[in-house]
Every structure is written in C-alpha cells, then in structure tokens.
C-alpha cells in the first residue's frame, strides 16, 4: 500500500499542475482582488473554486467505482485512459500554440470579474470549474486515476484532497497573501496581471504539451510493466 499511495500522489501532481499553472486559473484569482471588497470577494472566490474542484473530482471518483471498483487492482483500461489523456493534452497544446496569435487578449468575461460581489464570486468560481473544459477534463482524469489506483476507500479521499490542494494552490496564493498583506500587494499583482495577459496563450500551450507528455509516459510505462 505505501508504494501505491506514493505513486498515485506523484501521478496526481502533473494533472493538478495543468489546472494550477493555467493562466485561466490564476488571472481570475488576481482580477477578483480588484473588487470593491477584495478580501471577502477573494476568499469567497477561493471557496467556490475549491468546492468546485472537489465536487468534480468526487463525481468521477464515484464513476470509477461503478465501472471498476475502488480498492481493486488497477485495470488495464486505466493505463489506456492515461495514454488517451496524454495524447489529447498534447494535441490541445499544439492547437493552442498555433492559435496563440489570435489569443493575445483576455476573454471579455475576465474583465468583469473585478465587479463581482462575494456571493457572485463564489458562484462564478464554482461555475468556472464546470464550464472550463480543461478543468473538467483534468478533474475527470484525476478522479478516474484515483479510483482505479487500487487504494482503499478512506485513502482515496485523502488523494482527492491532495489533488485539490495542489490544483487550487495558485488561486489560493494571491488571495491568501492579499487577505494577510492587503493593499501592499497591489503593485505586484498589477505587474503579474499585465504579464500573464500578454503571455497567457503561450503559457497554456507549453503547459499542456509538457503535462501531456508526462501523462502519456505514465500510461505507456504502466502498460509495459
């Protein structure tokens, strides 16, 4: 069990980083701190984001239980799932790279995040986890990977918690830092926001390709073993 536990935690890191390092995750977390009440609005956004990630991952964890059974030996389809996920991520990253010139500006909905109230910020964050196809796709991959890992029932929920914490870390970082430091972070946040607005398309493409290669390798390695 210890080897399996350590293996699934390591496997979840690249999946979680697809969400954590996506500018479409980080930029809204920075923009929400420009709201009229930045502290409560930011914390509400973080709560909605975490709950959304946890709910999606749990749904697909339960789905894996229906098709295979939690706590059993990982089936061969789990390795093929990783291969499919890896290939799709690579193709997605290549597509985003080719389209990067037409994606230099942030989507219009992002610019409206700074006008949200705390309640709307929580609802928006939860909705973004479902409406963002990449987040939905990665949570599905994580939930199915955890459910097919061979871990028993209490341990799989600890793995879900680990995945959510890593995936939400870059959203939590600016919001928690602002809750502690307040307006002193405004200049830094403004620079980060401006840089990510210019580079978000290239960053997304590169991250998708790198993580796709890691997931693909994991699937091929599992089949070979």
UniProtKB/TrEMBL annotation:
The chain crosses the membrane at residues 12-36, 43-60, 80-98, 119-144, 156-180, 201-220. Keywords: Membrane, Transmembrane, Transmembrane helix. InterPro entries: Gap/Sap. Coiled coil: none annotated. This is Uncharacterized protein. It comes from Mycolicibacterium gilvum (strain DSM 45189 / LMG 24558 / Spyr1) (Mycobacterium gilvum).
């Amino acid at each position: 069990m210890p080897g399996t536990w350590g293996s699934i935690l390591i496997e979840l890191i690249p999946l979680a980083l697809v969400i954590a390092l996506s500018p479409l995750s980080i930029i809204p977390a920075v923009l929400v701190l420009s709201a009229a009440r930045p502290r409560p609005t930011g914390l509400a956004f973080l709560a909605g984001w975490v709950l959304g990630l946890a709910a999606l991952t749990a749904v697909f964890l339960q789905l894996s239980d229906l098709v295979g059974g939690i706590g059993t030996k990982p089936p061969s389809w789990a390795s093929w799932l990783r291969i499919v996920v890896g290939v799709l991520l690579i193709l997605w990253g290549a597509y985003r790279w080719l389209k990067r010139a037409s994606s230099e500006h942030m989507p219009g909905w992002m610019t409206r995040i700074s006008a949200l109230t705390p309640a709307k910020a929580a609802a928006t964050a939860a909705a973004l986890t479902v409406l963002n196809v990449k987040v939905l796709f990665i949570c599905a991959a994580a939930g199915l990977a955890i459910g097919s890992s061979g871990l028993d029932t209490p341990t799989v929920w600890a793995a879900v918690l680990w995945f959510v914490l890593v995936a939400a870390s870059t959203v939590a970082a600016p919001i928690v830092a602002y809750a502690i430091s307040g307006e002193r972070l405004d200049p830094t946040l403004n620079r980060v926001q401006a840089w990510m607005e210019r580079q978000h398309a290239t960053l997304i493409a590169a991250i998708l390709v790198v993580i796709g290669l890691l997931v693909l390798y994991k699937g091929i390695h599992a089949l070979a073993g």
